[in-house]
Amino acid sequence: MAIFITKFQFYLRQKSIPYSDITRHLGCDRSSINRWKKGEQFPNKLTADRIIDLYGQYSIPMDYNSIYEPTIEIRDKQ
User: Fold this and answer.
1) How many domains does the chain have?
2) Torsion over CA: 17, 23, 26, 32 (sign)
3) Is 76's pLDDT higher than 80?
4) Where are the alpha helices (H) located in 1-78, listed in sequence order?
5) Per-residue pLDDT averaged across 2-14, rounded?
6) Distances in Å between the alpha carbon of 20 and those of 4, 14, 30, 44?
7) Are 47 and 22 in contact (CB under 8 A)?
8) Residue 3 forms beta bridges with which residues?
9) Which residues have C-beta within 8 Å of that of residue 51, sequence separation ≥ 6?
């Protein structure tokens, strides 16, 4: 079964940026990152702005659609 995830979720799953850098830059904890990664919650607009800035520092293109719109199809492990 295929599911769709956002580019942001994809990058979180790939650990493209160390979680310690994300928590420090965003002022959040690892549990928030895990909820975002699983799609249980999404960051608010202010946090999304910070995410876009942080990923830009790593030369990873990110915009609001990358954070909120599921566009990447993956195989569900179930």
Assistant:
1) 1
2) positive
3) no
4) 7-14, 19-26, 30-38, 45-57, 64-68
5) 94
6) 26, 14, 8, 20
7) no
8) 74
9) 8, 26, 43, 62, 67
Q: Residue 53: which CATH number? A: 1.10.260
The structure tokens listed for 65 are: 């659609």
Whole-number Å distance between alpha carbons of 73 and 56 = 24
* pLDDT class of 18 with cuts at 50, 70, 90: very high
User: Do 26 and 53 meet the contact criterion of CB atoms below 8 Å apart?
Assistant: no
The residue whose two tokens read 């909120």 is 68
What confidence score (pLDDT) does residue 1 get? 77
Output the pLDDT for position 78: 56
Q: Which domain holds residue 55?
A: 2-75
Q: Which residue has the tokens 């492990």?
A: 77
Over range 41-49, report the average pLDDT: 97
